[in-house]
Amino acid sequence: MVDILKAEPIHAHEVKDLLKQLGYESIELELISALSQQEHNSEVFIAKKGNQVIALMSLIYFFYFPLQKSLCRITAIVVDESVRNVGVGKKLINFAATQAQTKSCAQLEVTTSLARNATQAYYESIGFKKASYRYYLDIGN
């Protein structure tokens, strides 16, 4: 059985390991600080099987002016490579959809790297539509 819970500062080490699987290096003390903050427009969840943290998902909720509606975006989702392809990712996405609905969001979005072709195909296979490219500009901080 897999349980989905809010991530807490005590999960920082496991969160760090999962983010590394996504290609993000992080500092455990910064993760502890981030997981300690209570933000009304973002949440971080973990999936646990027994006592083991096996997945991570972060969500943000925001008003999207062009649509005049609130949206929910999955900004990070990763299942530990040792337990992939058994439905944990789908359970997290369904959980995200429920969270989005409770916050009156009209859409659930997910972002992924252009290099993750299999991930993009998976999202499309479960109903997500590819709608745009995301560009960014590093501006410091």
Distance between the termini: 41 Å
Estimate the strand proportion.
25-35%
Q: Kindly report the spatial arrangement of strands forming the biggest sheet.
A: 1-2-3-4-5
Q: Give the strand tally.
A: 5
- Fraction of residues in helix: 25-40%
Series of secondary-structure elements, N-terminal to C-terminal:
EHHEEEHEH
- The radius of gyration computed from the alpha-carbon positions, rounded to a whole number of angstroms, is 15 Å
Mass-distribution shape: globular
Instruction: Give a short account of the largest sheet.
Output: 5 strands, mixed
Number of helices: 4
Q: Based on helices, strands and strand pairing, what is the structural class?
A: alpha+beta
Give average pLDDT, whole number. 94
Outline the low-pLDDT stretches: none
Structural description of this entry:
With about 140 residues, this protein is α+β, with helices and mostly antiparallel strands. About 30% of the residues lie in helices and about 30% in strands. The chain contains 4 helices and 5 strands; from the N terminus they run E-H-H-E-E-E-H-E-H. Strands 1-2-3-4-5 form a 5-stranded mixed sheet, sandwiched between helices. The mean pLDDT is about 95.
